[in-house]
Amino acid sequence: MAKITYIEHTGKSYTINVENGLTVMEGAVQNDIPGIDADCGGGMACATCHVYVKEDWFNKVPSKTEGEDDMLDQAYEPKTNSRLSCQLVITDELDGLIVNLPEKQV
Amino acid sequence: MIKTDALIIGAGPTGLFTAHQLKLIGLNCEVVDNLDKIGGQCIELYPDKPIYDIPAVPECTGEELTNNLINQLKPFDIKFHLSERVDEVKKNNGNWNVKTNKGTEFDTPNIIIAGGVGSFEPRKFNPKECEKFENTSIFYSVKDKSIFKGKIVSIFGGGDSALDWAIELSKDSKVNLIHRRDEFRGAQSTLDKVYELQKKGTINLYTKYQLKNVSGSNKLESVDIIHDNKENKTLKTDFVLGFFGLIMQLGPIANWGLNLDKKTINVDTEKFETNQKGIYAVGDICTYPGKLKLILSGFHEGALAARACFKLARPNEKYRFEFTTTSTNLLKRLGKKE
After folding, report:
1. CA distance A45 to chain B (A)
2. Which of A43, A73, A74 sits opposite B46 (nearest CB)?
3. In chain A, positions 57-86, which contact chain B (CB-CB < 8 Å)?
4. Domains and CATH numbers, chain B
5. If both were cysteines, with which of A15, A28, B182, B297 could A5 make a disulfide (CB 3.0 to 4.6 Å apart)?
6. What are the per-10-residue average pLDDT scores of chain B (338 residues)?
7. Is residue A106 part of a domain?
8. For the residues of A39-103, what is the DSSP string, one character each?
């Protein structure tokens, strides 16, 4: 279980507990947190669950697998700390993780 | 003007099976899709990913599912209008008048929207100023490459489209290729060619840069690009091409007077009809209490919407429910009986 904080582009934030094994994307979708579309349902086949991971957390989250950067090329305003939240699987180590949501996904 | 009993928008699995159901009950139909091939998300997003929850099919990929659905349509004659997007829907003498971006027009009592999560559209540049130059100096696809001859072209993106056009246009134009990171996603041979042309000086490569803004009064004059480390550069340019892949958007559907819930369309669960008589929505794009975004739900929704179409397309006939196992009518339509 990890406490995850999602901060919308407007600054509004949501902190929830997400079970281990779920992804940061699923945590948002299952708890009706707006701003993550996840059109493809978590298949790393679109770029609509795009988040920015706070710098101090960026090296602690699971690293990118092949293909994620290719999808991020198609995201709205990708930055160096961009990730697809469907690829961030929750573990106890991620307790306290903060992600910022982009202005929009599409 | 094409007259048809029903027009299906979207050639994904739900649209395909809905076409099957319409033809089976004796209605004709045509299908429009914005993509250049049949299959929708199953083909565009996950052709190789196995799906495990199609009833009676323990495991199949998006591509296999699509091919099976196409095979199932073999007995029927159905016209597909690919690479076309429905732009306009208007009421006309009790029917719907539908226009695509290529100018194809339909006259039909029934429109079935099976559009998934919307149509695939190119991802565009973010700065507002880019809209001013869109289709004159800024493009997201190349229709006529001769306009670039002798000009400076700045290409953004890191995939095959960006790389291929950089190579092609470098023959007759000065090319800047700009990408947000160091790695490109393209065939190694294509990449080698790009690096070779960079050495020769016919392609200027800017990696870890993104577009910041564009400027020009009547015509585009330059682009500002920004490096990951915040350093800015201004590049003189005549044209800009953006190749960031396709994203899914509701697109023109949002303007047809339908009751929407975010990116989905509200329907009833008897006919899967929207708030507009004769316009139905099925598959991932529709919503109602209890909606599941499963392919099997799309099949059910399409089957019911097809029956609802019958009433409007054949107002003087009575629809009779029949089984494919026993009905002579249906077996004839399926080509199994003379």
Report:
1. 5
2. A43
3. 69-70, 73-74, 76-78, 80
4. 2-121+247-333 (3.50.50.60), 124-244 (3.50.50.60)
5. A15
6. 97 98 98 94 85 96 96 97 94 94 97 90 91 95 93 95 96 96 91 95 96 93 96 97 87 90 92 97 97 96 98 96 95 93
7. no
8. TTSSSSSSS-SEEEE-HHHHTTSPPPPTTHHHHHTTSSS--TTEEEGGG-B--GGGTT-EEEPPS
